Amino acid sequence: MATQTKSSPKNTKKTGDSASQENNNGHQKMFDAVLSRLDTAAKKINLSDDISAILRTAQKQVLVSIPVTMDNGKVEVFEGYRVVHSTCLGPSKGGIRYAMDVDLDEVNALAAWMSFKCAVANLPYGGAKGGIKCDPRKLSSGELERMTRAYTRAMADVFGVDKDIPAPDMGTGKKEMAWIVNEYANIKRFTEPGVVTGKPLTIGGSQGREAATGRGVMITTLEAMKVLGLNKKSATAAVQGFGNVGSHAARLLHEQKIKIVAISDHTTAIYNEKGIDVAKAIQYVQNNGNTLKGFNGGTEISNAELLTCDVDVLVPAAIQNQITEQNAHDIKAKLIVEGANGPTTAEADEILSEKGIHVVPDILANAGGVTVSYFEWVQNRTGHYWSEEEVNAKHDKNMILAFENVWFNSKQFKTTMRTAAYITALKRIGKAIEYRGKY
Ligand code: GLU
């Protein structure tokens, strides 16, 4: 197992020049997108250069090679990553992603977003993210298990209940988390359920965790609609992505009487002016090999049409870089609530703000998942488990408080909710760094 620690990409970049680099999709590099948001917020609050410099670089970046014996008997070697961006507010927290576009730039960005997200949600955590470059849809269950266990062995000294706590992200779920907790127990010779969150209920998972990110999207949507004066009863919404985040968000918004007129996944997008029967769509996906393709609850549209359709609320809950300078001008929604991490590029931020479109940013809108991860960790450590009602009530309270703080800062600093969310995070993390000391 080769383990290598890499230096941070462009960690010396300073204000103003962070929008210069592009990746091979033509988009700004993801970590640069983080830095440009950080710069904007730092300027507004005159954040000290020292704090800004500390946060421009991840604390630790680990790259491992993961040899896996495939079902055909041949060995394939996968790239595995774990980036710990910050531990200023507590042990680092963040998911593990299985996807083909996983690379050091992406994992660095996602890890930094976790630091800011945990700070916005006022959780006692720093931020981290991990990933394996692979297409999980092409791997058998046995291959996935061997790969996950090998990744856990490689990261056994990185993870720890008071050190770094992984969770699900794109392409992973409770099944992978169960393998991680089990492999970690094999290595340590004792069970430490709080070393990973998002586990199945029977082995220390929390009620409400699976739906939590979607629930947070629903709560922050309702809060934003309230302050923006959007009427819930006549509101329409489009949800991009029908995985764990999008499907629960659509279901919960539908339960709140918001008409869901468009949904999509990686295979198709569906539009129905009269409203989509979300429960039926979820059922369909479950019986159709996890895809929406062929669902007859509306007419098929393109992904581009979904993003620009005439709705009150747009929920991008799929992947990053979906709202860009190319399509931002065409967005008709009044409110965007980011279920995914990084669905909007920094260039698009400006266009949306000029158009008066409000954005509940990812580090606030999708913080419900890590909030209930925190509750899972607390339950694991106390050995006392809560009902779904208790978890949901605590979640809703925390998310409403987080929203109110961000909204307050957006008014106080006369800025977008995105910049206000970064301001909220930077103030908290900055204070923690000052108390801990710079020496
Ligand atoms: N992967 C999720 C996120 O991006 C959850 C992280 C966690 O629960 O630690 O927020």
Q: What letter string, H or E per element, gives the SSE order?
A: EHHEEEHEHEHHEHEEHEHEEHEHHHH
Our measurement of the CA-to-CA distance between the termini, rounded to an integer number of angstroms, reads 35 Å
Spell out which ligands are present.
Answer: glutamic acid
CA-based gyration radius: 21 Å
Number of distinct helices? 14
CATH class of the domain at 212-365: Alpha Beta
Low-confidence stretches: 1-20
Specify the structural class.
alpha/beta
Strand content: 15-25%
Shape: globular
Average of pLDDT? 94
Largest sheet entry: 7 strands, mixed
Task: Give a structural overview.
The longest helix has 25 residues, at 388-412. This protein has 14 helices and 13 strands. The chain has helices at residues 30-44, 49-55, 104-120, 141-154, 174-188, 209-228, 244-255, 278-287, 303-307, 346-354, 362-365, 368-382, 388-412, 417-436, and strands at 3-5, 60-69, 75-86, 92-99, 126-133, 164-168, 236-240, 259-264, 269-271, 299-301, 313-316, 335-337, 358-360. The chain is of the alpha/beta class and 439 residues long. The strands form two sheets. The protein has a seven-stranded mixed β-sheet with strand order 10-9-8-7-11-12-13. Among the domains are: 57-203, Leucine Dehydrogenase, chain A, domain 1 (Rossmann fold, 3-Layer(aba) Sandwich), CATH 3.40.50; 212-365, NAD(P)-binding Rossmann-like Domain (Rossmann fold). Helix 6 (209-228) crosses helix 12 (368-382). It is 43% helix and 17% strand. The chain is globular, with a radius of gyration of 21 Å. The chain starts with a strand and ends with a helix. The model is unreliable at 1-20 (pLDDT under 50). The structure holds glutamic acid. The site of glutamic acid has 12 residues, from strand 4 and helix 12.
